[in-house]
Q: What sequence folds into this?
């Protein structure tokens, strides 16, 4: 084993610990690795920080800002108005409305923002009714987990690029995700999980929410119709660009979000401070850093070594079904004890390395890991949404398992079936 390979594995071990413990922000951990690669001569300076100027980072960073701008429009207020009207309707219609609105918001904003918006409505529900705030809050958190970024609009449009950044240094462009691949992989779990939630939400214990843990969430100040039209226009232009990537070329498509963001700045729809806050968020640093980590794994041979090790554990010539089940179960268990974003970042390069070593479809294994990383509803440690639902709803994890365990089993089964339909392991 060469010295460079040994050092790379040590740096990777540090990253694994940081991703799993979240002692440091993910972006900071990734950037520390980039610095270490230069210090130890693994990568030159330009390569080590190439993630900051990569096409993926340049697409995702402004897209995050544009997607968050949608939350300033009247769209959110209109959705809440619809929910308020549903409160007096039949129970099933109310539950369907809550699930539907959560699915929509889960494409437009992050977990905490989505659940915070839904809390504005849920707090008005009756504690003594079948649709108590605590029960509906956990329902919202569950739907949010399985629906987040599954549809390629808003924040959902950034998810394939984010995943690509985790392993793009290991593979060629043909093995990177397209704009709809994450949606295809997560479609069956989303459908099956939503139906389960609608039919079996009564398995969630009833109760009241802890108002002491609820932050004062208010509607954003209304913006002018002109600003709203600019935001919608830029958003539609970006979505159209993503749809016509083959015709426009990847360079044009990746720069459209940046062009749209500049339009919003020039016409004073967004202020410089709020733009800079999003452009320098932890997610952007993590995307930039993780793409370089995958490059180091490839150039030093560490990725090949990891992939071959995993294959040896799986046994000689494992079936596609067996491989998909092993990765799905492993990641689902991991993500409920650790952060889902950390699990995605950790397992993506491992999945890609294993697929390359075994002659498998790289997209298949990566997608299994990234979709199942969002099955984080069994324990409050899985993700920020689960943490909010358990804490604010005063829920007991063991009592909730009669709802969560069958759900997670259903999600895993539907994911394995969907992957083998849309992305055959040896296809």
A:
């Amino acid at each position: 084993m060469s010295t460079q390979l040994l050092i790379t594995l040590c740096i990777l071990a540090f990253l694994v610990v940081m991703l799993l413990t979240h002692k440091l922000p993910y972006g900071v951990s990734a950037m520390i690795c980039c610095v270490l690669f230069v210090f130890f001569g693994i990568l030159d300076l330009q390569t080590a920080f190439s993630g900051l100027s990569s096409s993926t980072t340049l697409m995702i960073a402004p897209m995050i800002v544009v997607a968050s701008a949608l939350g300033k429009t009247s769209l959110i207020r209109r959705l809440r108005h619809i929910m308020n009207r549903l409160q007096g309707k039949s129970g099933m219609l109310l539950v369907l409305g809550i699930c539907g609105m959560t699915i929509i918001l889960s494409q437009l904003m992050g977990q905490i923002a989505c659940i915070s918006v839904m809390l504005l409505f849920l707090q008005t529900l009756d504690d003594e009714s079948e649709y108590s705030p605590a029960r509906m809050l956990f329902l919202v958190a569950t739907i949010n987990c399985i629906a987040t970024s599954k549809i390629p609009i808003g924040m959902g449009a950034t998810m394939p690029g984010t995943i690509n950044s985790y392993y793009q240094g290991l593979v060629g462009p043909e093995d990177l995700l397209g704009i709809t691949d994450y949606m295809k992989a997560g479609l069956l779990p989303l459908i099956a999980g939503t139906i389960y939630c609608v039919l079996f939400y009564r398995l969630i214990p009833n109760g009241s929410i802890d108002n002491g843990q609820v932050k004062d969430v208010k509607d954003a100040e209304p913006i002018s119709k002109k600003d709203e039209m600019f935001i919608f226009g830029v958003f539609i232009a970006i979505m159209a660009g993503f749809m016509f990537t083959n015709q426009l070329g990847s360079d044009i498509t990746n720069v459209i979000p940046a062009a749209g963001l500049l339009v919003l700045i020039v016409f004073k729809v967004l202020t410089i401070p709020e733009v800079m806050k999003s452009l320098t968020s932890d997610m952007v640093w993590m995307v930039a850093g993780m793409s370089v980590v995958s490059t180091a794994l490839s150039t030093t041979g560490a990725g090949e070594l990891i992939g071959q090790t995993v294959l040896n554990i799986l046994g000689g010539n494992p079936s596609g079904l067996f491989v998909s089940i092993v990765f799905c179960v492993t990641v689902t268990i991991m993500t409920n004890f650790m952060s889902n974003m950390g699990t995605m970042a950790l397992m993506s390069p491992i999945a890609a390395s294993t697929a390359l070593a075994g002659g498998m479809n790289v997209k298949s294994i990566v997608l299994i890991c990234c979709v199942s990383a969002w099955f984080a509803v069994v324990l409050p440690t899985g993700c920020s949404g689960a943490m909010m639902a358990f804490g604010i709803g005063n829920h007991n994890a063991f009592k909730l398992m009669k709802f969560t365990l069958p759900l997670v089993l259903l999600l895993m089964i539907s994911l394995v079936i969907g992957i083998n339909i849309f992305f055959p392991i040896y296809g």
